[in-house]
């Protein structure tokens, strides 16, 4: 699981950007980068992912160059993603007002582990998040982060 996740360390996913007819996804990503103050110089490719459901907008996969500059640019995007709260219309000019989220590109297993940890530890742990492909939890702001590697870790944390 860790090896597969490491192959995605230069990627991020943008969720909530409305699909527009004849859209140029690279221009949408550039506009989003400009809005949050992040550079797009080290992006190697952008692709709209296939739709999984009619109710959800297909996400955008952003791949950064596979070098230290690409990784640093991706980390810059991740650190700036909360600086401005944006909705889809700010980027596309369309009518949708979905909130835009910039997330790590996670494997299905890590994404499922994160979801399970968030749902099962709700009310027990104040913080559950993912960073560098690792699911972590903290009881409160002063607590020590705990790395969650599997569902059995979640069971142990539930006590």
Q: In terms of topology, how is this protein built?
A:
Layout (H helix, E strand, L loop, with lengths): L1 H5 L4 E5 L9 H12 L6 E6 L11 E5 L3 H13 L7 H5 L8 E4 L3 H13 L6 E5 L2 E5 L7 E3 L2 H8 L1
Antiparallel strand pairs: 1-3, 1-4, 2-3, 5-6, 6-7
Protein architecture, described:
- Helices cover about 35% and strands about 20% of the residues.
- It contains 6 helices and 7 strands, in the order H-E-H-E-E-H-H-E-H-E-E-E-H.
- Strand 6 (about 135-140) and strand 7 form a beta hairpin.
- This is FP protein C-terminal domain-containing protein.
- Pfam families: Baculo_FP_2nd.
- It comes from Plutella xylostella.
- InterPro entries: FP_C.
Write out key terms for the chains shown.
single chain, about 160 residues, alpha+beta, Alpha-Beta Plaits, 2 domains, three-stranded antiparallel sheet, about 35% helix
Order of helices and strands: HEHEEHHEHEEEH
The percentage of residues in β strands lies in: 15-25%
Instruction: Report how far apart the termini are.
Output: 25 Å
**Which structural category do the helix and sheet elements fall into?**
alpha+beta
As a percent range, the share of helical residues equals: 25-40%
Question: Can you summarize the main beta sheet?
Answer: 4 strands, antiparallel
Number of helices: 6
